[in-house]
Amino acid sequence: MLPLGFLLLLVCLSTARGNLSRDESQPTTSDETVVAGGTVVLKCQVEDPDDSSLQWSNPAQQTLYFGEKRALRDNRIQLERSTPNELTISISDVVLSDEGEYTCSIFTMPVRTAKALVTVLGIPQKPQIFGHEQPIDEEKIARLTCRSSGSKPAAQLRWKKGNKELKDEGTEVVEDPNGKTFTVSSRVEFRVTKEDNEAEVTCTVDHESLQNSERSTTQKLQVHYKPTAKIEPHPQYPREGEKLQLQCDGQGNPIPREFLWEKEGSDVPLQLSSDSVLIFPFLNKSDSGTYVCTATSSMGSVVAKYNLDVSDFSQLPTPHVHSTPAPPPGPSQSISHASMATASSFTPAPIQDASPVPSTSSTYHAVIGGVVAVIVFLLLSLLIVLGHYLIRHKEKPSTASVSCLGLGDAVL
Length: 412
Known about the structure:
Layout: H1 4-21, E1 32-35, E2 40-45, E3 54-57, E4 63-66, E5 69-70, E6 77-83, E7 86-91, E8 100-106, E9 112-121, E10 128-130, E11 136-137, E12 141-151, E13 156-161, E14 164-166, E15 170-175, E16 182-191, E17 200-206, E18 215-220, E19 223-234, E20 244-253, E21 258-263, E22 271-273, E23 277-280, E24 289-297, E25 300-310, E26 336-342, H2 359-411
Parallel strand pairs: 1-9, 11-19
Antiparallel strand pairs: 2-7, 3-4, 3-8, 4-5, 6-7, 8-9, 10-12, 12-16, 13-14, 13-17, 15-16, 17-18, 19-20, 20-23, 21-22, 21-24, 24-25, 25-26
């Protein structure tokens, strides 16, 4: 075991060596990182200046400031603080060429220096997406490329389709002509579906120079897909004798522009045009049948069917009167029964006529009732006039006989 006095001697020697190794006239600096276009501050400090001044010089060894004195005429470089123990300067509107080692010197014997590495970050440009210029057919592979230049160090790119992340197929980094910044490219590939039409694909660039913000570009996909079609009747429940329009509603991308109307069992097409409406000016029983609409676009054709059944008045059931209240009338008093189908036939339950008699018979009876009412009114008027005439005719003879009797009395 070492004696206590020997241990104390070792401690004193270590402390003395530490004090001897510390140079209070050695300046100190720190490395700085700045975004291109920003401002960087360079600070140099010394504990014991030994009556000497501090000096800052750039990577080209050009003196910027010697104490308070400006040495280089560059208005971007300004003095922030100058004391015997500190020399602080700032450089504004930093460019990529400002990057490098800056030197703080103090002219003691010997001269002492400290280095400060300034790193300038190149801000990446807004990314661009290529490969979306033309529409893509469904079930085909979409190949998109995102590119951003001007970053230093090289930026990172990421993809999204809607809210879903897309994994890239590879990233390429190329040095820009200035030899300082980089251009980054990223590719994605995926199979598109009908649901991808109008979907938003976003490319975002991530870089430390953006400082918690991001730059991104969004493009909408245009996907071509096969058409669909359905037939809509107007009115929905047509009646015999009415005008009927069948609307072939074609959907798709692109939208169908050609419509072929046919009736099953007929060899002659009814209509072929860009008009999707088939018109029946006056619906009758002979129009019953299945009508077929073929809608065509550049992506193909699709077939929709409509079954029309026009009933005869004589086939309507005789109505029965019940003591219970009648249900409210339907959408219309239909005597036609129709159904629709797309690609395959679909027939709903027939719609029963809700009226006791056809509407044309009701109109006919209303006219007859009006004529009868007029005749009855005329007969009643004639009877009243005739009765009045007879009453007056009876009163006149009675008055004449009284006068005659009075005259006879006078003669007698």
